[in-house]
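Re-running the complex after MR caught last week's input typo. The corrected sequence lines follow. Everything else is unchanged.
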Amino acid sequence: MDIKSPLSVSQPTVRRLPLYLRILKQAEDAGKENISSTYIAKELKLESIQVRKDLASMGITGQPGIGFTVKSLIRAIEHFLGWDNPTDAFVVGAGNLGAALAGYEGFGEYNLNIIAAFDIDPAKVGSEISGKKVFHIAKLAEHIQRMHIKIAILTLPSAAAQQITNIMVEAGIKAIWNFTSLKLNVPEDVFVERIDLAASLAVLSNKISIDSEKVSK
Amino acid sequence: MDIKSPLSVSQPTVRRLPLYLRILKQAEDAGKENISSTYIAKELKLESIQVRKDLASMGITGQPGIGFTVKSLIRAIEHFLGWDNPTDAFVVGAGNLGAALAGYEGFGEYNLNIIAAFDIDPAKVGSEISGKKVFHIAKLAEHIQRMHIKIAILTLPSAAAQQITNIMVEAGIKAIWNFTSLKLNVPEDVFVERIDLAASLAVLSNKISIDSEKVSK
DNA sequence: TAGATTGTTAATCGATTAACAATC
DNA sequence: TAGATTGTTAATCGATTAACAATC
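Corrected-run output:
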């Protein structure tokens, strides 16, 4: 009834939630029952009102004078993100980046399970990267359908990315974590989240070049 | 005199510049002399006024009725980002992610040269990853100083990240591209740009869980 | 009662978008 | 002259921050 529509939570807020989770789990490990927005904010160098606003936008409330219950706050955030249930994903592209992501242990914390990897290189097919089996990319559609996989982690060379994306979408993929430098064309009901290395490097490069100008003045 | 201070350019603007560059280089390859903000915007599904505002904030002006000169716009953006001169960088951590970044050919476009990699694993030291020599991490400070390296690409396990960061800062590193899940503590004059996989995954997961709720209603 | 903390309401800030005269 | 495009000025939008009464 008075549950907030999930759509009203802004992306900046969603991106901060994992930070909150980290602090909350530390608090849980330390045996804390309650935690205040002031404390979370101080740890992350944010404003306490921002933490409260973020939580409020998800429909989470605390107790005046007390704060928030650590355990229930963890549960609420994890549920909001869908991290309270395991999600299976495929890594598509078994190069170094694919191997790095296939073996990234941090994903366990988010309940993201990498089931297998796919590649076109016959030398890789049949082998394992970071403990995950590599299948031929020709089998990708079939596996997506059979296992009802919804998430693909795309680490292919850009040249092949759009073509394989089309195949994955056709097979039923609903979300693509795009590590390529290509902007993918997908239907409306497929969500693409891109790791944009160029954008990130631009920020870094710009800071560096500002600094060096300062010095030369 | 009327040159804009580089500091006044907002981060959202800086992050869009590589997108503009891509369109501009396509136009250059196609032999175009001039290009309009309308055209750039249409290609990227943005508003033309946003493109003009972004360029204006860097002090770049066009010609009414004509648009912008492709070549000079490319030069201006690349100069603003410091991408018109080569920059050397070290990869710190020679795991799969380090190897992926050390061998990433896309960096050539940004004039970012990965000189070498560093790792603590004796089995890796002396070998090559993606064609770059791997040195022992004990040699990191010395190499940073000797080669005046300003940028480090950090792909270590989180546990070691802060300690090595301290060493690098001491040795003179000015910018860290942080691929670990740790928030690094650095002095004010060192800039850290983080690739936050958890934040990105949170956006993806949230979208997925919204969709599955829709279906179940 | 005093201190800590919340949620609400309002203010501020910064980025995006709109409207349009000036220019080629 | 007509059409395309710019830069300027103002409006809108959304996120962050501030102030404070209510609650424990």
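None of the earlier attempt is carried over here. Residues 36-38, 48, 52-53, 56, 61-68 of chain B lie near DNA strand D (CB under 10 Å from a C1'). The beta strands of chain B are 34-35, 68-69, 87-92, 112-119, 128-129, 132-136, 151-154, 175-178, 191-194.
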